From TrEMBL:
UniProt domain Transposase IS701-like DDE: residue ranges: 26-281
Protein name: IS701 family transposase
């Protein structure tokens, strides 16, 4: 989670460019006042230092005493769709970067009280404690240079979907039920596949804290997506491949062995030079595996570390024909996703949403993502003044 006391990385933003960008992203809005407040909110996120409360955003962009109320109304109550804006973010991200992966990351949004949509008690390893929070699951278009957020889902625990009163107060659509993390990720990927104008790229995600990751792997395989996924070290795997199956005794057990134990016991070390100045030699372990009850062949790999060292992530992929340096390069894109989430929290107000409704949350996440995308895409626009080509 970001520290608001850290120096901001925001830069001065020319007004005309923000206006053109806002029109490209939010031009689908039916009313002129909605489009005007979308631009104002975006401008405020880009230029307001520190905490980006609605009151502070309003003070940055307007001298009107009613501006804060209007911004609050625009985000929380105004009936505008966020899907068209996210579709346009996807188009611009793909136009101005060279996507190598669709990465998935989680944003932990601490909250006071129990009334914000989706809030619940959750143990957060990064914080080392249980906190009151919302969990946002984001999809990012990731290249070697940039990581751009283009879509979000809000994790809704069962207490929020089973209680009619809570659903009504938070304006949760009737069609939404309690979906586990893996189902939310699959839904993000399905939506992205329907929006992209480019060939599909691998899905990269850290699901090492998700105990039921198997349905995600099966779902991605059935859909024909390539993937590199960090999995729990306890994930049960079976040795061998579809062409060289495991011995009958191992197959009969159908429980296999924990992934971390299996890859350490059965893999030869492979050396790979890192990209740092020292060109350290990092050793990786890799082994073909299957999952119990599945015929697909996957590849399990992890960094080798000596006994007593912190356990590294264990990754599984269906890119079985690619060499280890290509796979490790994809996993390193995930660190860029974490950095993007940190910047969204610190510089673009991701943590500062003051509303409680489901639509309001999605409105705010879309606006924060647009502000971040504008800031980053200007840097890779390839023009002297950072002018973005917003044409279709």
């Amino acid at each position: 989670m970001a520290d608001h006391n850290r120096p901001s990385t925001l830069e001065p933003v020319p007004g005309p460019q923000v206006s053109s960008f806002a029109q490209a992203i939010f031009g689908h809005m039916a009313r002129a006042d909605q489009r005007r407040w979308a631009q104002a909110y975006l401008q405020g996120l880009l230029t307001t230092p520190g905490r980006k409360s609605v009151r502070r955003l309003a003070a940055t962009v307007s001298g009107s005493p009613t501006a804060a109320m209007s911004l609050q109304q625009f985000v929380n109550a105004s009936p505008w769709e966020w899907a068209p804006a996210r579709r346009e973010l996807t188009r611009l991200a793909e136009r101005h970067t060279k996507p190598r992966a669709w990465t998935v990351g989680n944003a932990i949004l601490p909250k006071r009280g129990d009334y914000s949509c989706g809030v619940h008690r959750r143990f957060v390893p990064a914080a080392g404690r249980t906190i009151n929070c919302q969990v946002g699951i984001g999809l990012f278009v990731s290249s070697d240079e940039e990581v751009i957020p283009v879509d979000w889902r809000l994790l809704l625990p069962q207490q929020w979907t089973d209680d009619d009163g809570m659903r009504a107060r938070a304006r949760i659509p009737e069609s939404l039920g309690c979906r586990p993390m893996w189902a939310q990720v699959l839904n993000l990927i399905d939506t992205m596949a329907s929006r992209t104008s480019q060939p599909r790229v691998p899905v990269v995600a850290d699901m090492s804290e998700c105990t039921d990751v198997d349905p995600l792997l099966h779902g991605l395989s059935r859909r024909g997506h390539e993937f590199v996924i960090a999995v729990p070290s306890t994930l049960q795997v079976i040795g061998g491949s579809a062409s060289r199956p495991a011995p009958a005794a191992a197959e009969a057990g159908q429980h296999g062995r924990p992934a971390q134990d299996f890859v350490r016991r059965h893999s030869a070390r492979q050396r790979l030079a890192t990209a740092d100045r020292q060109r350290r030699q990092v050793q990786f372990l890799s082994q073909p595996v299957r999952l119990p009850g599945m015929g697909h062949t996957y590849r399990l790999f992890t960094e080798w570390r000596p006994a007593g060292a912190p356990a590294p992530r264990v990754w599984i992929t269906n890119l079985v024909g690619h060499n280890i340096d290509h796979l490790v390069g994809l996993t390193r894109l995930y660190s860029g996703t974490n950095a993007a989430i940190d910047s969204l929290e610190r510089d673009f107000g991701l943590l500062d949403f003051e509303g409680r409704s489901f639509p309001g949350w999605h409105h705010h996440m879309t606006l924060a993502s647009a502000a971040y995308a504008y800031s980053r895409l200007r840097r890779c626009a390839g023009t002297e003044d950072g002018w973005l080509d917003l044409s279709a």
